[in-house]
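Hey team,

Filing this mostly as a record. A colleague (T.K.) asked me to run one chain through the structure pipeline before their review meeting, and I want the input and output archived in the tracker in case anyone asks later how it was produced. No errors, nothing strange. Just documentation.

Input sequence:
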Amino acid sequence: MSRTGRLFQLMDALRGNRRPVTAAVLAERLGVSERTIYRDIQALAELGAPVEGSAGVGYVLRTGFFLPPLMFDADELEALVLGARWVHQQGDETLTRAATSALAKIATATPKDLRDHMADTSLWVPVRVNGSSNEVFMRPAREAIRRQCKLRLGYSDEKGNQSERTVWPFALAFFEGRRVLAAWCELRDATRHFRVDRIVTAETLADRYPVPRHQLLRRWREEQSIHDDS
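Output structure:
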């Protein structure tokens, strides 16, 4: 592999991590020595790439800068297309339009127009045949999570008992056949899960909830034993 190609791979490796990555991890991923990684990091810095960090601590790519033209291999393209096709089946029209728009931007942002190649990708997901009108509540749920605002829900449990809850939504999970909103429930003073298809009404309140979303999410992940190594 040429040095230029290796530098692009190193940029991709850094871009794919939110936290500092050690030279040892980068060396293993690229199949080179740690000394080579140190030299390549220095080369990227001299070229103006905003790489932060140091030996023994790790390196991270600072956000908010212009990247070189996007390059995708065949596996990466198939992953993008498969992900977008999966989003199309989730009953959220806004996300569907966003996925289509994102794919179009990706296809035309590369040196070679990839739209025909993406359209020919032979990976598909099952078509949903049991969509629910209650999926209309997915958009306000997503927006409340993004804005860290409280939601007032009218909710019907599995026995048909209805209640009104004020919740602090922090996550939305997509399972086969159902969508589940994870939120802190003021009524129960605990984390609760609400199936989107059982939501009767949803009103976004002006009040932001008092605990930062990332803290609620971290606590929930610990309770559910969900780990993220990225």
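Quick notes for T.K.: The chain has a mean pLDDT of 84. Strands lie at 51-54, 58-61, 149-156, 162-175, 178-185, 190-195, 199-208.
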